[in-house]
Amino acid sequence: MQNLEQPTLCQDVPISTLCDVKLWHHFSVLTVMYMPFGFLLLLSRLVLIGAYGLVFPLFPHEKRKSVYRVFIRLLGIRVHCNMSPEAVGQHTAGCVVASTHVSIFDHIPGLAMPHATLMIDKADSPLGKFVGYILFKGSNSSYWLVKNQRQLVQCFREWNKAPENHALYITPEATLNNGQALFRFRPEFMIRGQPVVPVALKVRLPFGLSPSPMMSPGYIRFMTILMMPYIHFEVTYLDKLHYSKEQSPQTFADTVQQAIADYLKIPATRWTRDDKYSYKAQLKQP
Prior knowledge:
The protein is an alpha/beta fold. It contains nine helices and seven strands.
């Protein structure tokens, strides 16, 4: 039986523990020597993304997912998952997939999985819109464009007509963490009648590069990460959890958060996205 007790979230972890300030944890001579090759790699991958945007319409829809997996490998992205794609499809169909958020590239592994549906409200740059279009269409995945509560309700209503057609991937922290601890999960999208599959996500980059630098604009993060020789994701799908009306929505969200934190062996904290941005504003003050 599912544990209905209130998880005990950490209260003694400072907000700075969850936030990366610098783009690089360290910057060595080897990093400097690599950078010219990194710029060439960046240019070649941008060309590859553009080329993929031209050719993916030639592939049948049922083949695009497998072609997409080859495409991301060519980008240097490796995804190590505890299940095969077919098993992920069976495990997540009709579920909300609640994942940690450690990089702006986090959606790329999810789009390689069956039934993947992401919720978006905007892209922060023309580059983001261009790449996002290619990734979604090229992987034969779908998305919900949600700008207000009315659109959200309509999306869930349509989903309930054929729930097995979608696995809704969300990031309940609503912001990036640095892999050292988890921000508190928000319950809004996890209490609508669908089972929740927690996902523990890790990313590994070379040269001491941070996957979630708090002070760097999105396009800088994107291009810097794309310069790296590899981007390794470790994706672990955990057991399903079910919301009970005996729990408060926040208690259930805390339970999902704690399940992921326990697997990753990191603290589950009460710090929120708003706390992060307050901390960021303090750092900018002279």
